[in-house]
Structures are given as structure tokens and as C-alpha cells.
Amino acid sequence: MVRLGNMVSFVLWMTTLFMNRACLTAAMNTGCTTLKKGALVFLHGLGDSPADVAAWSSLEYTLPLIQPRLKDITYVFPPVPNICLTVNGGMQMPGWFDLYDWPIAVGSRDDRKGKMAALARLDMTLQRLEEEEGIDPSRIVLAGFSQGGAVALLSAYQRREQPFAACVSLSLG
User: Fold this and answer.
1) Cα-Cα-Cα-Cα dihedral sign, residues 142, 61, 69, 135
2) Whole-angstrom distance, CA of residue 26 vs CA of residue 20
3) Domain, as residue range, for 90
């Protein structure tokens, strides 16, 4: 539980730091004085879902208790479909992409098609945030745990010309 608490603290710190920085930048350009046009998009790990009892979606309620300014940002916890996971003998579970080898090593096979599909799903979420809520990617902290963290890093790398406020990748390994 200490590790989980440390991870929540780290997400809090990163979100507060980068949302404050994004608000300062916006204030110089538009007079922004609140965090209303910011978001935390958190991608869960393999086998998890936003609906799980101990899900990461509790961050939406936990972070504002610790840092009240974070109550005004939008929290998004996108779900993923069940996929057949090769390392689990084809058993279906929520996942961003398939894993062919375990443990994962430098020479492990890569599910590029699955990762690109995960990025496409995430891009739809990000596009909806921008179109429906007016939240620019530069005001989004993209975070993820485990497999969701890998997708977050890949997305941040792919969007270098339109970067996020921050990207956080967490793991318990």
C-alpha cells in the first residue's frame, strides 16, 4: 500500500506542477486564473478497468482532497476492450495491446498493430476533450500505470509537435 500511496503522491505532484505551469502560460496569453481547462487522462494497466473497486478513477476524488485546485480539472479514465492475451494462453482480459513474450526483453516480439490501435482509441478521447471541452493537449497531463503507462509514453513520443503538459508512467515492478 505504501507503493500505491507513493504513486498517487507522484501523480498529484506532476499534475499540480504542470497544470500550474500551463495556467501561468495561458494567463500570459488569455488571462486564465483557474484550472478549468485542464485534464488528467489516466490509462489503467493490463487486466484493470476504470470500474474496478480499487481503480485509478478514485484519483478524481483523492487528488482534490490533497490539492483543492485539482477539483476543477477534467478527469478521464478511458476503458479498453477485452483482448486475447497470448502470454495468458489466449484468455481475454482488458488490455491496450497483446503481449507475445514473458518476461519482456529486448528481443521480445512487439504488437505494433495493437499499440497503434491503442493510440487511435486514445486519440479519439483526446480529440473529444479538445472538441467538446476546449482542452488543448498542452493542458493535459497524460498518465498511466503499467501497460497504460507504456501507451502514455508512446503517445507522448508520437505527439512531440503538439506536446502534453506532462506524461507520467508508473509501474510496481
Assistant:
1) positive
2) 10
3) 2-170
- Identity of the residue numbered 11: V
C-alpha cell at 79: 476503458
CA–CA distance, 25 with 20 (Å, rounded to integer):
9
Whole-model pTM over 0.90: no
How many domains is the chain built from? 1
pLDDT tens per residue across span 9-41: 555 555 555 555 544 444 445 455 444 589 999
List, in order, residues 6 or more apart from 96 with CB less than 8 Å away: 43, 46, 80, 114, 115, 118, 147, 148, 150, 151
Separation of alpha carbons 41 and 121, rounded Å: 13
For 98, which DSSP code?
A: -
What would the grid cell of residue 15 be?
A: 499534475
For β-strands 166-170 and 140-145, DSSP reports them as parallel
For residue 28, the tally of other CB atoms under 10 A from its CB is: 9
CATH code for the domain of 71: 3.40.50.1820
